[in-house]
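Re-running L-2,4-diaminobutyric acid acetyltransferase to confirm reproducibility after the cluster update. Everything else is unchanged from the original entry.
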Amino acid sequence: MPTQTMSLDPAAATAATASQPRLRLRAPRLGDGAHLWRIARDSQVLDLNSSYAYVLWCRDFAATCVVAEDRDGAVVGFVIGYVRPDAPDTLFVWQVAVDAAQRGRGVAADMLNALLDTVADAGITTLETTVAPSNTASRALFAAVARSRGAHLRIVDLFDATDFPDAHEAEQLHVIVPVRRHSQEEK
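Result of re-run:
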């Protein structure tokens, strides 16, 4: 399978943060891994991966991830994802997190939309993610992103709680199609 190279489109990042002029969206750099880990830990709702995993995300999957930084250069949010090896037209979003001080300002949707614009240019037509049924904020986020893009959102059961070795809640698969670049008129 050919390797897909994607980079966050600066025009998409600028347009996506029009409502947040003090934030800048960009692809993560290796040094951002510690910040991603801290934001995930401090969220108190995300499954916290090892710090090593976040550093690897920044190195190996930067083309399918995005970070938001404030005007002082502090990382205040991230989306991490990857192209599914058995479905090269599908972006799987692993985690979305925003620093507590930035929540409720549309940062998560801005990051997702900027990333989707970028990967759409690389042939991605589908977004997948899993969300626990009790996670109303994430359910609302992905529904709003699908609606704003004129896309269809399908939700199906994927992982039952018994699939996990710990007390993890079941996860439902959220599928958004089609993923295509926003035109300036749609924004």
